[in-house]
Amino acid sequence: MSFGTRFSNGWTIAKNSFKVLKENRQLIVFPILSGISIILIFASFFTVILGIAGWNVDNMRDLGTIGSYVVLFVFYIINYFVVVFFNMALIHCTSLYFKGEEVTIRKGIDFSMSRISSIFAWAVFAGTIGAVLKIIQENLGSLGKIITGIIGIVWSVATFFVVPVIAYENLGPVGAFKKSANLMKEKWGERIGAGFSFFLIEVVAVLAIGIVGFVLASVNVIAGVAIAVIGILLLLTVISALKTIFISAIYHNIQGDPVELYNQQFIDNLFETKK
Length: 275
What we know:
With 275 residues, the chain is an all-alpha fold. It is built from 11 helices and no strands. The protein has one domain (3-269).
């Protein structure tokens, strides 16, 4: 598949997903809330650890390996919980839209609250994996980085459908992981084609924002940096929403409830089946 085709597919995905977002602008609230929550969580953890270290950044390195890993584990759990909670709310609202039902932020939040135990179970599972990978990365040097890099790629592919699976199927974290991985394998083979990706769109958009910021910075540094930072944050928020909308659409197609904006032939062309 050529670069041009890949970029074209990525643009089509973004355009169709943006159409859904444009007609339901309130959906952007979910990634915004998720982002704000993560920032607050990070700030809280940093403040507590800094306080334990006597408000001296240098002392933070002397907290002990075990203690650091425990804090990291808890941090991962909370972050996974927050991300999945708001992504699930967004996916449910998108599902309501595809079914022609009224979409409200309250409905999304209420749905996630009804699945809160499943979300927490997944957060613990994913947090454990994340902590183990971090330990491997920090203790095996270059080899550890290679191992965690490979596992990280496999993990991101295998968990592609995990949020809608947790949302709509009565499965535990291991079962949800297996189901998500099987959906990827059964529907589109064992190797993902580069055709499906928002990555190219993100890169082009970030470069464009960076160039604008650089030009403005030549006139006013503060204004240039501010525009670049705000622009990138807005871009990441929108891209996050568009990705989640697309995942919801694909899941609908898999479940035999096709979404008009994403016909099956187009979706199949986004992936390369292993020969």
